Each structure stands twice: as C-alpha cells, then as structure tokens.
Amino acid sequence: MNLKKYDIIVVGAGHAGCEAALCAARMGCKVLLAAIDLDKVAAMPCSPSIGGMAKGQLVREIDALGGEMARVTDKSAIAYRTLNTKKGPAVHSSRTQNDKNRYHIVMKAILENQANLDLKQAMIERLVTEDEKIIGVEDATGFGYLAPVVILATGTFLSGLVHIGFKSIKAGRAGEFASYGLPAHLRELGFDLGRLKTGTPPRLKKSSIDFTRFKAQEPEEDPRPFSFFTRQISLPQLPSYIGYTNPESHDLVRRNLEKSALYGGMIKGRAARYCPSFEDKIVRFPEKDRHQVILEPEGLETQEIYSSGLGNSLPVDIQIRFVRSVKGLEEAEIMRPAYAIEYDYVNPVQLKPTLETKKIAGLFMAGQINGTSGYEEAAAQGMWAGINAACGIQGRKPFILDRSQAYMGVMIDDLVTRGTREPYRMFTSRAEYRLMLREDNADLRLMEIGHELGLIDRDSVKDVKMRKTLIDGEIKRIKKSVIKPSVKVNEFLKRCGSNPIDNGIYMDQLLKRTEIKYAAVEKLAKSPVALDPRVVRQVEIEIKYEGYFRRQLSEIEKFKNLEKIKIPDGFDFLTVHGLSNELKEKLTLVRPVSLGQTSRIDGITPAALSVLMIALKVNSECSLKARNLPEN
Q1: Strand pairing of 240-244 and 215-217?
Q2: 513-528 confidence digits (pLDDT tens)
Q3: Could you identify which of 225, 254, 354, 359 might form a hypothetical disulfide with 230, taking C-beta atoms 3.0 to 4.6 angstroms apart as the criterion?
Q4: Percent of the chain scoring above 70 in pLDDT
Q5: CATH 1.10.645.10 fits domain 565-626
Q6: Are the CB atoms for 272 and 422 separated by under 8 Å?
Q7: Which CATH architecture has domain 8-196+343-416?
C-alpha cells in the first residue's frame, strides 16, 4: 500500500482524465492520475483534431471554466477552420487539425508541473470499497493507493478488443494493453455494463500520395485562437485535401463484406450511427456512387496522413486494394491499418447529475466509460467530474450547469436522464437554447463561475465584467441613436444593398437588417470610445437576434420553473398512484432530482407529470406535519 494518501485518484489519462485531474488539483485537492502508459497521455488515437459542430462549443466552455483543452489545442494546432459560417451564430463551430505528438507532449508537461498532482504509470484493476463507499484502488501488481474519491476515465480500455477482418486482439487501442480485471470487478459491484464499437481509418504515407488528384482545403488565413487566453498562434498552418471514392471502391467492399469484422459476425457492440464505417456506408446508402475522403496531416514532422472517410474493419490485404482504388491513392502505402474496436461501458443512468455513481459513494465516471464518443465530450465530462469530486472533498455545493447554461449541461442531463445504447455524440440540435449557448459568448456565460471555483484568475473575470458593461452600454446607445434621412445616409444604405429611409429611424432597427453590419454604426452613429472587436461582435448579435433571444428567454423561464420543483432524495416512486408500472420502474432507475429532469425521461407524458406533481405536494405536506411545521 502506498503510504501517501490522496483526496482524489483519477484512473485513465486520456482527455477526460487530464481535465479531471487538473481541475481537482487546481482547486486544492491532492490528486493521483494513473495511466496505463505515460507515453500515451492525452493521446489522439483517432482524428488528430479538436472541435467541430457542437464540439467547438464544448471546448470553449471548458476553456471559459478554466480547463486546459483549448490552450493545448492552440499550442499544437496546424490548421484552423470555422464551420457553418453561412448560417447563424448559434451553430458557428471552431475546428482545428492538430499535431498529435505535440498535443501529447504539451499536456503531459502541464500535468507533470501541476502542483498537488502526481502522475504515475499503473494499470488499476480493482476498486477498494467499504460499506458502499470508495476508499482506494489496487493495480495489476496488487499495489494499493488510498483516496475517498475515485474518478474512472478509462476510455475504450475496458475489455477492449481490436478487430481487423477475422483477427481480434485484446487491446485498449492498437498496440496498447486493455483492462479486463476492472470491468469484471465493476460487474461484481453490481454495475450494468454494455458493449459499444468505434473505429479508425488507415494512416497513409504522405510521399506515396498523388495530391494533385485531390482538392486542397486551405486553413483560415487569420484564424481566431480556440482559447480565450491565447494571444498568438505560432505553428505553421497546413492544408487538408478532399477527394472521393468511386464505384470500383464500393464494389470491392461490397464483394468482401462478409470478411469485415463488422459484417462477418465478429462485432457485437453498437456502433455510432453518426460516424459510420465504410462498410456501413455501402450497406446503408447503396444509391450513392461516391463518398468523401479527407486527407489530413497528423503533424509537422511526420509522414502519416489521416484518411478520414476510409474507416473499416476489413483484412489488411483488402484494405490495401480498397485504399488504392481511390484516385490519387493508386500507390498509397498504409502505415497503420484501419481497425474497429469494441469496449465495455457503464450505462450512465447509473450516475447522479454530478457524475458520481448511485451505487458507490465517492466513485465518479467520465468520458467513454459513460457511452460517449469524442475527445471534446470526454474532456467536458472529465472537468465536470473533477470539479464535483473536489467540491465533495471540500464540502462545497455540487457543480451543476443546466440545459440553459451550457452545452455541458445538455450532455450531462441527456446521459444521466436518458442513458445511451449507442455512442453518444454532441450536436447543436440537442441544445434547445443553442442561440444563447454560442461559442463566442462562452466566456461571458461561464468565466465568473470558473472564478468562483478557483479555476479562473481575477484579472480575467474583471475583463469579462468590463466587456459586459460595455456591451450593455453600446446596445443602449445604439437604441437611442436616431438616424435621419439625407442624401449621404441613403447613398451609404444603397452601397450596402439596403433600402433608403424616408423618416427618422433608430439605429438598432437599421442594424436588424440582414445586409447591414456594425460598420454602419461606425459610419452613421459612431461610438465616442473605441470598442474591443469582441464587444462589437456581441452587440451586433444581440441586436440582430433580439426577437429570438426574447423568445428563448421566455422558454428558459418556463424550463427553470419545472427545474425548481425538486424531488427529495429517497422519494419512493413505487408508491405514486396513477403511474404505470413501467414509468415507476424508469423513475426508480433514473431517480430524477427535479420535475424538469423527470419531464425529459422517455415515456413521461404531461398526465404523468401532473400525477407526480400532486404526489410531491402531498409528500411535502406530510413532511411538514411530521415535523410540526406550519405550511406555506
């Protein structure tokens, strides 16, 4: 047994484990971060990219709360892009291509130099519990570590099985040990585990590719950093290349479907419907005669190219023929073959909204162990679990963001309320209030909360508060500014492609016009002080979408009214008359903490909600009488 006692032990040093350990340590807890292989800390085993649709929002929220992912991204990014720029700001999402080795090195150095944090190589095989409370862990050698809180962030390593054709290899990722003792132990403790499947495409040798047959996709010329704290992007920026498969590619895969692990019966786990393997594409979309392929560099000093779109679980000899059927890849050399991987996960309905398990006090879970996919989803859960673990140790109230506050809140609520039977991925469509949860305002939404937790410095919060004041002041000024018709004004509007005015009009009404940008304010109603571009952006968005904001704020108010009706811990759903047995079982399993969370459980109807509301009122009245307290 290790003599040093920790407050928190984090098992797994992927993206979830790194954020969990750093947050807890920065909040003042003594933390041990245990990794199977220290050379794989913060590894990028699939696409070496960060962000994307809805994922970019998660990364900026992590950053605004004081997490590390966005900062490390900016130190390792070799291409930036903003997605959905032709749509409204609610769905604008940042994405980077990263040098995966640099990402690992930078994050590992941050972990090694973090106060209160020990980084050790160990395969944790058992949890040590006492009276349904965690007290420590034991590694594969029988050596133990003590802590009252443990966070499992084990990724794809629980009973991991890599498939290439009919060949199956026990591995957490290709070439890495899997953990078989820990999932068996979790079952012993009574947890319900399921089986999921994901995969990764082949890596190709750069010098063997004819890039002239592909269309170059250049990175943004003047990219905006991912982190609110990054001032300069230093690494060279590289292009990606877009091409397509063809009927020959499709026919080859179709003729060899039975040889793939996925369609040959080797794989039992549920695959992600939103990130299908190439075999899935052929079966599900037989009418398509081509599918997109994107070739992305894995780093500045490596020849490896990530071939997005060519993921499969075929034998290597067929993979070679398949890759070389694509125009421009006729001579391509596969440096690492594609593979599928199956792994165990814990259905997240077994977790509280803090990500602490309901069965074992002090045991938290974060990342792919909860059935999610993606580095960003994992990092957000890791941060959530790390903060809540630290809050528990320090006797502080739990850290909970609701669906109206953050994409994080949407994801956690989805997981613990509905669970998942397939890899969960974040989408903007999952967020009901996405217009309020933009990536450009994550700092305004969350940085003050990060400061209260001890993760954001005072100067950063002072800057946020100052910008909020400037934004409010500029909006009020613009709303009071009247623009009178004149030849000069109407000529300017004509140049903007906008209709002239015949009468005086408030500047905010002009700015609401689609074709009018904030530059019109500078021209027609100039601010007396120079404004930060971040202030200008928020002012323009707030004014242009004011009607939509008002509507969403009304919806949020209704949502919060249901969230305010709390369900007491230990409330017996089985005694509620008027609910079906099926709903009683669901409610007992999920154990929602509020009427709002109850409303989002599958199968809950307005009638069932009314029945439960009455039962809660009766329960409250009975509790007051039992304590001889006057009723409100």
Answers
A1: antiparallel
A2: 999 999 999 999 999 9
A3: 225
A4: 98
A5: no
A6: yes
A7: 3-Layer(bba) Sandwich (3.50)
